[in-house]
Specification:
Length: about 150
């Protein structure tokens, strides 16, 4: 799984001109899924998200996790293009991106586990939909994770 974490002042998802989801301050997560991903990958990434200290403390240092701010939200959007391979040519290959029969249940498990760890619902996009995603990145703070590498880029 690949995950892009963005600290935001606000974020939203519109589908066919209608607002599907929105949050104020919090985290916007873009999630890419491949066939080799397992429940262990979900567990790893969800625990990292809730524990990652990327919000400012009283001294302005990124030292606090989202769990310190119950009013903040999380918006999770599936994004198969995160799994793009750009090794050959100029047209990305999405051969590593999972098909919906595997990816949808994994996406739903990821959102459910994250919601459980936070003890509140997370907002979502709609898997496979043509979504218009808007956000105001705070900082900017953007972190990329790959569960297969078990490290932050």
């Amino acid at each position: 799984m690949r995950l892009v974490i963005q600290r935001v002042l606000s974020a939203s998802v519109d589908i066919e001109g209608k607002r599907k989801s929105e949050i104020g301050q919090g985290l916007m997560l873009l999630l890419g899924i491949e066939d080799r991903d397992t429940d262990d990958d979900i567990d790893y990434l969800c625990h990292k998200v809730v524990a990652m200290r990327i919000f400012n403390d009283e001294q302005g240092v990124m030292n606090r996790p989202i769990t310190d701010f119950p009013e903040m939200g999380i918006l999770v959007v599936s994004q198969f293009t995160l799994m793009a391979s750009t090794r050959k040519g100029n047209r990305p290959s999405y051969i590593h991106a999972s098909k919906p029969d595997f990816a949808v249940p994994m996406y739903e498990k990821f959102c459910s586990q994250l919601s459980s760890l936070l003890d509140k619902p997370v907002e979502t996009g709609t898997f496979g939909a043509d979504m218009q995603v808007s956000l105001i990145n705070d900082g900017p703070v953007t972190i990329i994770m790959d569960s297969q590498m078990r490290e932050i880029f």
